[in-house]
Structure formats: structure tokens, C-alpha cells
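Researcher: Sequence recovery benchmark, item below. Answer with residues only.
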């Protein structure tokens, strides 16, 4: 039996594609329930990871997405660990909302698209990422999929892989499904079907290690690629079928064209191909019947009653309690961003869950996710693809488009995936219900934002408000209003109000101040001190909550020391250099918070360009089964005329453990970095493997230092990386021993196990040869209570004696800088001391224990004080941050400073 169905664009948001659907001859068979409702698997189940520490979920906010769908934000606390989680609760009994599964681009398998892209294409008002998939394959889900009531893909033969489904009457299900089916020739002969629209994989619990070996699969026009599938280790015999009639047979070769709408291909190999050879001919009829087999309740469900189904991984929650894991979870362990789905005990609500992982949220273990799900009311639920795939988008109230609910593990970038679970509004057009102000909720001082008055109807869907021209006002002077444009003036919170007739709407806008900033980073940390120099100086602020934001020129105030210059459109230009200046500073301040570009005559120097390497380079690894090669070769692309260091690696022999692939310089000795370096710059040809790129140094004290070159290799082609070394506390001279690729255990399935990266033109900014050149060296001795300083044996008078207070020595910083070089500036209104020495810029504020060093906020045990009308700084703290060594003798109450 065969029949053709057409997807309704109004239901799924697709562009009217016609997928051939083979009628299911049977029903979904549900196996007998055992014990607690979890089916018995072959082999032991992994235990759920129950956290020992007590946990709690606190709702932080809640907002309506559309009628029947609510977004809730939570903070989940386990001991001292805090994680953020986001939950979309969908009312399955509300006729104005529904769930559906979206696929790739234009609804095709073998294409990939971000969650946000699929939501936009299909008109979803919210969505989360969906099923697991093989990142190295074409792009099809590992589990089964039903979209718009149509079966699109069948479950793989993998143990313990659960799925979430909703029937057309709104009843949710969480179960493990298998597949059973066959094709029947016109002569009555039958052959077993292995599945529909599947990528190649390794089956579990069978004698075969290849999914398509001696097997028959159906591929419909939803499979876009011509190859069905790639890397199957089999040569196919394919049969094209249209309207139940065979139109083409290709013996031991694939049919080299896409599947037309309304047709399907029977893809066979081995014994299945023999069935085709012996029983099928062009012009004959071919029928198919199959069923999904469930392992849950023993009840029969008409397959046509399914509205959606999406596959996942292990079950997480059963009967409102953490469930034993249904399959091994070692490859998805650790504390990650995670995605899950489940439903309530009464079956009314579906919960779409995504947890965050960034500096402001610790992520969750699977055990923590189980606890969180039970706390918010999940009765049954399962784990979806997580880590770098975890994504949630939602349409804010009165807005037309969806936005990221939170940043992914890659920031604002979204991974391209094979399917996503979408929330769709099915409501009719309603009457105007309310207004809201739309615009940025946070602004930087000096930044201008544009705001609009937007409306929503009785179903909480957006209403066109273009004809409405409201009046705008602010609650205070923190922001200045001009029409619908708002300019941030000073830090604090303001309320923006829009008034139209008798209606009004408000929004709170936070103007971020210096106290909200954890660090400021300039894209270029060092530059040549020479007239005519021009460099890009984009500034990025990392806030205390971990979020990053680009700081516009209008929000920054620049100060130049040692030269004259200007910053325009994010570029610094040196117009002239002051006489006798060996070091220059371009200081960028945001509301007092500083960062610096250090300019020097020597500046950056090339340390290794690999043109004339005289030392050995070797490949090494920490796992015996990992292979690779490291050697100097001719470059490619923009480095085609250069020699480069190329690192090839194959980590397949280290699956399940942390794997390192090293390019080792000069055996175990390394190559010397001769002087103190504040920055490292190098060109890297990336492989988009999503692995971690690092360098290993050994400093002059014998300490091993690991330097992050790139947290994620998410690019291809050559890219220049700049690394700030000032915070690593490296004692120079040091040895650069090796550069290497890391693939950690957590989320290993999301990263490439094989790849190749190349390195070229490694440069170091060495202040000892540039910005620190000419700084005085020697030994200075000061005694508590005495107005004198002995420098290199010579005693000089000072106008203020060091004091000892609560075990800390304080002194005017001027005395230290007079002896060892540098300068200090006092800002009386801000009560701030700015200290400049060599490649260091340090801001200290009276009474505040936090200080800023080269753009980073650092906590200290003590703060500057004012005593006798003089500003005094903690001597040891400041001196050591400036690269000086301090020794205290409590018997003589003397302080010795060395450089």
C-alpha cells in the first residue's frame, strides 16, 4: 500500500515540499512494561549520577512567548555551584500552540542549519536544538523523526536511545523505539527493511559492524544528497519507485540524481541486492509496510495519530524521579550546556529545557539536570544533543523574530545541526491587548540606542504598530532622550516611557558603569612607537556576569602618553612621537576602567618563521594509539611562499579520554624566549575541528606554563592570533617547548578526531627589549618611619616615610618609581592613582581592594589609603605587579626592593 501526502505549509512552515509517505501497515507495538516502567536492555544500565550536595531551583523570571507557551529562567544551585537554565513550557491542550520538528534547510536531510535559522525559515516562535547526529556524516538524526504527522526517519539500531513524541490529540510520550518493516515484490517475495533516511553508522547488538551491509533502506525525497549515504563501506543497488511502480534499477551503482518529489529509492546491498536482482523489474509494483516498535506500556497506538517525534539519548526522568541511564554516558559527561525535553505528570505540559555554560553559569552534569527536571515538574524526560549544540531561541513579546535566549558555548554563534524542536503559534489574529517598549535593556555610557513602541494581541502575537508615533521620556538623567533615540550619559538604571494617547509602556534600561566591567581588552596590545603607525584597536568589555560586549568609540575616552595621536573608527594613528620617548601609552578608559596599548621602538619581533630551522621537531602524544606528524613543510594559501610548521593528528585511538597531539620543539628542551614577553602573536591555519589549541612553556623557575592560543579552533584558513601573556606570571627567559591540539573527554563526539593545523611567524612583544629598555635596575632599601631611601648603596632623602598598618607597608608610589623608573598620575575626583612602568598600566583607587592591571580587574587583600594628606599604596602589591621583587625584614623593619 502506498500513498502520497503533502505537507501543509500553514502547519509546518515548509515551502510546500511533497514527501512520499509509505503507509504503515501495522500499528506501533508497545512491549510489556517491566518494574518501574523502564524496559530491560541487554547488558547493565549505567547508574544516574545523583549529586551529593543539596540542590534547589529558583525561578528568576517568566515571560509569555505566545498563547500556550511561556519562557521561564531559573538559577539552579548545587552546593556553591550555580547554573542557569531556561525552560519553555508548552500547553499541549491549548489549541493555539503546537510543537513540530524542523529539519535542516527547507526541510531536507543532509543539509544543516542553526536552530535560529530553522526557526526563522519555518516561522517558529521558539525552538531548541534536537537529536544527536554524526558530525562527520551527511546530516541526518540518529533517532526517529516525525514532522507534521509524517514519518521522516526511523530509529537507529542503538541501545537505550529514547525519543519524545506527541500524538495528534496532544498526548506526550517518552519511549525507546525500534523499527520493523519489509518490502514486497509483485511476485509476493518479501525482504526486511532496515530503516528510512539513515546515515551510515555502527549498529549495536547485531553481528554487523556496518549499518548498510546486506541491508535494504528506503530514502525519500526528504533526503537531498545524491549519495545515500556516504562512507557506508558498501556498493549499492538502487531501485527508483514512483506511485508504487518501479521506474529504474541501477545494479551495483547508485542512481546519480536526487529523489523527485512523490518518489522513493530502495537502497540495497549484498543479500538485499540479490533480492532485487531475483525479484524486481522495471514496470512492476513494489509495496512496503513497516511499524515502529515501542518498549513501554503494551498499548497500541495508531501511527497516524503521531504529530511529532524527535530522538534523543538516555532517559533522564521517569515517574518524576531520576532514572537509571539507559546507555553509557561517559562521552557526554562533565559539566556542560545541555538540552532536554519532557512532560508533566498530567500530560498537559511539555518542557523544552536548555542549560547555560559560560563564565556566569557552571553548566550541569547529567545528574544535576535530572534533579533540575524533577524540581520543575518533569514526569518523564530525556536528554537531547548538548554541549556546543545546545541552543534555545525565543520570540520576545511583541517582536516579529526570534533571538538567542542565551549565548551558546561559542558566544553568539550557533552550530549548524540536523533538526530542532520548534514551538508554533496556530492562533488566529487577535485584537490589540497591550504595548511594550522594544530596545536594548543595557547601554554603555556614550552609546545611543533606538527604541520602538510595539504591540501584541490577545494571543500574545505581535501587532503592526508602524502608524503609532508615541512620545518618549526618561525617569532621570542617566539617559538623554531625543525622539525614539536614547543616549546613555551616566551609569545607573533609568525607566524609558513611551506614551500614545491614554496608553503607555515602560522599560528599564541599565547604563553600565566601570564597576560592571571585569576586563577591557584591546584587539592590539602592542604597536611600534613611530610617526605614521596605524593599528586597529577594537575594545571588548567582559562584564562581571561573564558576557562580552564590543565597546563603541563613543563610549571610550583615549589618553596618549609619549606621543600625539588619535583614534577614529577603531583605528589608532600616531601623528608624532615626543622627544626622547622610548615608550608610549594609548590608554582607553570606559567610565574610569582602563586598558592600554603599549607602543615601543623595538615593539614586536619575529621569534620563529620556520625558514631556517636548525633544531629537531617531533610529533608526540599522551595516548599510544594516537598517531600524527609534525614537520616543517611548504605553506599553503596566503603562506604559500613560506615554510610553516604543520601538525597532523589522528585521535581515533584515544576516544573516551583526554588526548593531546604535540608539535615538540627541540626534543624536550624547547626554544628560548630570551626576554620578558608581554604578548605573543602567531599565524595559524585552522581546521575547524572545534578542538583546543595551546602552547606549553617552561619558565626560568622551572614552572610549566600552559598558554591558551585558542579555546576553540573554529576557523579554516590562516588567522592571526594575539595572546596577552602579562597575566601568566612567567619568569623569563623561558622555553617554548611545544604547541599542541587538545581533545577533552567532555563533548568529544562534537569535535573532529582527525585534522591538521599549521603555524607560522611566531612573534613576541618583549618589553625588556623595548618598553622596559632603559629602566633603572638595582636594589633599594627603605625603613619604616624613616624619610630616606638607599638606592644601590646611595642614601637619598624622601618627603614621606613608609608606614606599617595592619601588617602592610604603605608608601607614596612616587618613591618607588623615582628609583626604578615609571610615572604616576593622580586623579583627585576619582581618587585614583594611575601607575605606568614599562609594559604595565595599573589603576588603584583609594579605599578599593580591586585594582586594574592592563585591562583586567584583580582583587587584592588591601587597598590604597590616604594618610597625612598623602595617598599611600601597598608597597609589596604594587611593586610586584610592576615586576619588582620585595623582601621584608621584620627584625630591622626594612623593605628591600630589587629589579
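Model:
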Amino acid at each position: 500500500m502506498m500513498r502520497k501526502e503533502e505537507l501543509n505549509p500553514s502547519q509546518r512552515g515548509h515551502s510546500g515540499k511533497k514527501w512520499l509517505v509509505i503507509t504503515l501497515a501495522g500499528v506501533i507495538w508497545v512491549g510489556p512494561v517491566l518494574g518501574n516502567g523502564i524496559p530491560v536492555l541487554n547488558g547493565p544500565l549505567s547508574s544516574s549520577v545523583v549529586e551529593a550536595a543539596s540542590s534547589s531551583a529558583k525561578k528568576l523570571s517568566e515571560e509569555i512567548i505566545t498563547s500556550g507557551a511561556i519562557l521561564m529562567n531559573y538559577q539552579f544551585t548545587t552546593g556553591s555551584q550555580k547554573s542557569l537554565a531556561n525552560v519553555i513550557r508548552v500547553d499541549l491542550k491549548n489549541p493555539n500552540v503546537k510543537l513540530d520538528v524542523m529539519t535542516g534547510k527547507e526541510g531536507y536531510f543532509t543539509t544543516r542549519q542553526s536552530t535560529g535559522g530553522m526557526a526563522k525559515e519555518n516561522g517558529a516562535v521558539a525552538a531548541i536544538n534536537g537529536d544527536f547526529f554524526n558530525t562527520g556524516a551527511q546530516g541526518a538524526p540518529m533517532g526517529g523523526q516525525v514532522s507534521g504527522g509524517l514519518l521522516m526517519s526511523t530509529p537507529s539500531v542503538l541501545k537505550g536511545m529514547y525519543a519524545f513524541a506527541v500524538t495528534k490529540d496532544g498526548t506526550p510520550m517518552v519511549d525507546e523505539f525500534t523499527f520493523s518493516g519489509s518490502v514486497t515484490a509483485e511476485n509476493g517475495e518479501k525482504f526486511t527493511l532496515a530503516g528510512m533516511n539513515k546515515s551510515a553508522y555502527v549498529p549495536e547488538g547485531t553481528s554487523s559492524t556496518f549499518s548498510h551491509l546486506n541491508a535494504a533502506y528506503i530514502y525519500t525525497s526528504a533526503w537531498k544528497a545524491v549519495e545515500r549515504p556516504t562512507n557506508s563501506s558498501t556498493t549499492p543497488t538502487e531501485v527508483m519507485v514512483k506511485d508504487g511502480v518501479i521506474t529504474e534499477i541501477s545494479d551495483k551503482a547508485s542512481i546519480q540524481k536526487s529523489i523527485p518529489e512523490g518518489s522513493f529509492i530502495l537502497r540495497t546491498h549484498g543479500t538485499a541486492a540479490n533480492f532485487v536482482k531475483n525479484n524486481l523489474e522495471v514496470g512492476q509494483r513494489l509495496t512496503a509496510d513497516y511499524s515502529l516498535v515501542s518498549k513501554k506500556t503494551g498499548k497500541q497506538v495508531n501511527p497516524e495519530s503521531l504529530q511529532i517525534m524527535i530522538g534523543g539519548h538516555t532517559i533522564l526522568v521517569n515517574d518524576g524521579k531520576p532514572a537509571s541511564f539507559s546507555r553509557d554516558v561517559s562521552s557526554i559527561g562533565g559539566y556542560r550546556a545541555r538540552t532536554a525535553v519532557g512532560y508533566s505528570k498530567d500530560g498537559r505540559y511539555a518542557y523544552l529545557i536548555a542549560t547555560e555554560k559560560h563564565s556566569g553559569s557552571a553548566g550541569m552534569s547529567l545528574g544535576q539536570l535530572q534533579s533540575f527536571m524533577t524540581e520543575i515538574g518533569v514526569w518523564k524526560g530525556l536528554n537531547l544533543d548538548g554541549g556546543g549544540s545546545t541552543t534555545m531561541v525565543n520570540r520576545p513579546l511583541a517582536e516579529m523574530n526570534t533571538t538567542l535566549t542565551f549565548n551558546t558555548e561559542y558566544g553568539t554563534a550557533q552550530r549548524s545541526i540536523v533538526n530542532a524542536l520548534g514551538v508554533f503559534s496556530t492562533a488566529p489574529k487577535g485584537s490589540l491587548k497591550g504595548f511594550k517598549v522594544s530596545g536594548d535593556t543595557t547601554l554603555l555610557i556614550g552609546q545611543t540606542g533606538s527604541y520602538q513602541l510595539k504591540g501584541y494581541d490577545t494571543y500574545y502575537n505581535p501587532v503592526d504598530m508602524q502608524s503609532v508615533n508615541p512620545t518618549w521620556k526618561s525617569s532621570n538623567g542617566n539617559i538623554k532622550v531625543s525622539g525614539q533615540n536614547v543616549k546613555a550619559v551616566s551609569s545607573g538604571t533609568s525607566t524609558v516611557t513611551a506614551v500614545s494617547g491614554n496608553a503607555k509602556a515602560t522599560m528599564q534600561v541599565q547604563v553600565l558603569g566601570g564597576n560592571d566591567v571585569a576586563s577591557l581588552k584591546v584587539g592590539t596590545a602592542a604597536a611600534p612607537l613611530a610617526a605614521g603607525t596605524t593599528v586597529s584597536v577594537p575594545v571588548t568589555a567582559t562584564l562581571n556576569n561573564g558576557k562580552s560586549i564590543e565597546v563603541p568609540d563613543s563610549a571610550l575616552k583615549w589618553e596618549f602618553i609619549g606621543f600625539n595621536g588619535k583614534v577614529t573608527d577603531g583605528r589608532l594613528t600616531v601623528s608624532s612621537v615626543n622627544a626622547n620617548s622610548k615608550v608610549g601609552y594609548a590608554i582607553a578608559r570606559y567610565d574610569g576602567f582602563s586598558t592600554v596599548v603599549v607602543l615601543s621602538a623595538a615593539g614586536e619581533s619575529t621569534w620563529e618563521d620556520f625558514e631556517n630551522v636548525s633544531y629537531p621537531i617531533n610529533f608526540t602524544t599522551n595516548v599510544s594509539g594516537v598517531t600524527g606528524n609534525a614537520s616543517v613543510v611548504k605553506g599553503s594559501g596566503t603562506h604559500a611562499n613560506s615554510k610553516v610548521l604543520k601538525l597532523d593528528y589522528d585521535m581515533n585511538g584515544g576516544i573516551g579520554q583526554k588526548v593531546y597531539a604535540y608539535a615538540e620543539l627541540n626534543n624536550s628542551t624547547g626554544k628560548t624566549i630570551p626576554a620578558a614577553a608581554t604578548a605573543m602573536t602567531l599565524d595559524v591555519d585552522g581546521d575547524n575541528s572545534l578542538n583546543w589549541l595551546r602552547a606549553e612553556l617552561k619558565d626560568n623557575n622551572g614552572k610549566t606554563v600552559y598558554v591558551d592560543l585558542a579555546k576553540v579552533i573554529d576557523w579554516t584558513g590562516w588567522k592571526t592570533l594575539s595572546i596577552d601573556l602579562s597575566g601568566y606570571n612567567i619568569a623569563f627567559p623561558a622555553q617554548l617547548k611545544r604547541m599542541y591540539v587538545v581533545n577533552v573527554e567532555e563533548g568529544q563526539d562534537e569535535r573532529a578526531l582527525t585534522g591538521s593545523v599549521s603555524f607560522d611567524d611566531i612573534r613576541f612583544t618583549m618589553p625588556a627589549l623595548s618598553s622596559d629598555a632603559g629602566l633603572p635596575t638595582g636594589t633599594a632599601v627603605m625603613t619604616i618611619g624613616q624619610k630616606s631611601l638607599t638606592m644601590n648603596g646611595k642614601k637619598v632623602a624622601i618627603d614621606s616615610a613608609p608606614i606599617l598598618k595592619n601588617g602592610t607597608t604603605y608608601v607614596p608610589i612616587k618613591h618607588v618609581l623615582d628609583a626604578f623608573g615609571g610615572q604616576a598620575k593622580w586623579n583627585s575626583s576619582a581618587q585614583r592613582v594611575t601607575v605606568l612602568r614599562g609594559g604595565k598600566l595599573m589603576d588603584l583607587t583609594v579605599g578599593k581592594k580591586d585594582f586594574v592591571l592592563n585591562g583586567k580587574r584583580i582583587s587584592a587583600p588591601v587597598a590604597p589609603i590616604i594618610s597625612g594628606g598623602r595617598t599611600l599604596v601597598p608597597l609589596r602589591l604594587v611593586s610586584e605587579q610592576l615586576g619588582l621583587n620585595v623582601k621584608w625584614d621584620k627584625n630591622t623593619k626594612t623593605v628591600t626592593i630589587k629589579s
